[in-house]
Write a structure and sequence with these properties.
Blueprint lengths: L2 H12 L10 H7 L1 H13 L7 H16 L1 H24 L3 H24 L9 H19 L4 H50 L1
Helix pairs in contact: 1-4, 1-5, 1-6, 2-3, 4-5
Length: 203
């Protein structure tokens, strides 16, 4: 999945506003000085971390990624939570944020389909499993970047073998489908010629 697809979707999701009202650091400090100081510190680090739908989505995504691989989830969590923070900030500071995100979202999806159709010659995974594609695709992007940086080379080699098998199987299925189509076309031509010959003979 193109990163801009996820980011623009987070801008849309941030439009929900806070799903659960949270007290301000000042309100917390009025009851407990220590907790108020902690709340102010967290607010500086996680500013715009209001519990809107964008944040809920990213927390769920990161939680699922932790279930898959803790080490990689620790690396990627700041990226995904940062995306929710930036999307919320962008929405709150730009009156045209949703309209801009809409254009970006459309262009990114077009680029996504062109990339699959022109370069990979295959349909995107979302045509097979929409939920899996939307949830795991951002995670795969992180893995690809980490692999390019030399992250866990043994795992990369193992995955490369599996990917090659999958690609080879896809190419074999596509070749078989092309052969079947060619055979059907040839059969149709032969049948057509035979029919014309029979008509001519009767005449």
């Amino acid at each position: 999945m193109h990163p801009l697809i996820l980011w623009s979707a987070l801008v849309f999701a941030a439009n929900t506003g806070p799903l659960v009202p949270l007290p301000s650091p000042e309100a917390i400090a009025s009851n407990d000085v220590v907790m108020g100081g902690l709340a102010r510190a967290l607010d500086k680090v996680f500013g715009f971390a209001e519990p809107n739908l964008a944040w809920v989505m990213m927390v769920l995504y990161v939680g699922y990624y932790f279930a898959l691989d803790t080490q990689t989830a620790l690396i990627s969590a700041p990226l995904f939570l940062g995306a929710a923070k930036h999307a919320t900030y962008f929405l709150s500071t730009n009156p045209s944020a949703t309209r801009i995100a809409r254009y970006i979202h459309a262009v990114a999806w077009i680029a996504q389909f062109i990339g699959h159709g022109v370069f990979e010659k295959r349909a995107p995974k979302l045509t097979e499993n929409l939920i899996q594609a939307l949830v795991l695709a951002p995670y795969f992007v992180v893995w690809e970047i980490l692999f390019m940086m030399g992250y866990r080379p043994q795992l990369k080699n193992e995955l490369d073998v599996l990917v090659k098998k999958d690609v080879d199987a896809f190419k074999a299925r596509r070749a078989a489908a092309a052969d079947n189509k060619a055979a059907k076309n040839a059969g149709g031509v032969v049948a057509g010629v035979g029919a014309e010959a029979s008509v001519a003979k009767e005449q």
